[in-house]
Amino acid sequence: MDEQRILDELLALLTTGGVTIRSEPLGGAGGGLCAVRGQNVFFLDTQAGSGESAALCAEAVAKVLDIESIYIRPEVRRFIEEHSSSAA
Fold first, then answer.
1. Which residue has the higher pLDDT, 88 or 44?
2. Over 50: is that where the pLDDT of 88 sits?
3. Cα torsion 36, 62, 67, 57: sign
4. Which residues neighbour 11 within 8 Å (Cβ) at sequence distance 6 or greater?
5. Is the pLDDT of residue 85 over 50?
6. pLDDT tens digits, residue range 23-81?
7. Is residue 12 part of a domain?
């Protein structure tokens, strides 16, 4: 599974978890999860590569979702576990 496909699945997981996704040009090295007015928002840097964005997204998924209680494709689950210290 390529990085773009993994990124797409991670973004879908965040959306399912109630996180708002905002695509913004942030210079290529930014992005990530934050809270804006009490709402979780993931800023997706449109100038970053899909691999870097997917790694940041994996960290966010591990923070906001209980990945042990939901079905996640094995390749995506492995990616989350490899890129996040928060994953169980």
1. 44
2. no
3. positive
4. 21, 42, 44, 57
5. yes
6. 999 998 778 999 999 999 999 999 999 999 999 999 999 999 999 999 999 999 999 99
7. yes
Burial category of 82 from C-beta neighbours within 10 Å (exposed 0-12, middle 13-18, buried 19 and up): exposed
What is the C-alpha separation between 36 and 40, in angstroms, rounded?
Answer: 6
Strands (E), 17-76: 20-24, 32-36, 39-45
Number of domains present in the structure of the chain: 1
Question: What pLDDT sits at residue 84?
Answer: 81
Q: Which two tokens stand for residue 11?
A: 């973004």
Indicate whether 56 belongs to any domain. Answer: yes
The answer to whether position 88 is within a domain reads no
Inter-residue contact 58 to 84 (CB < 8 Å) = yes
Q: In the 8-state DSSP scheme, what is residue 69?
A: S
H-helix or E-strand spanning residue 31: none
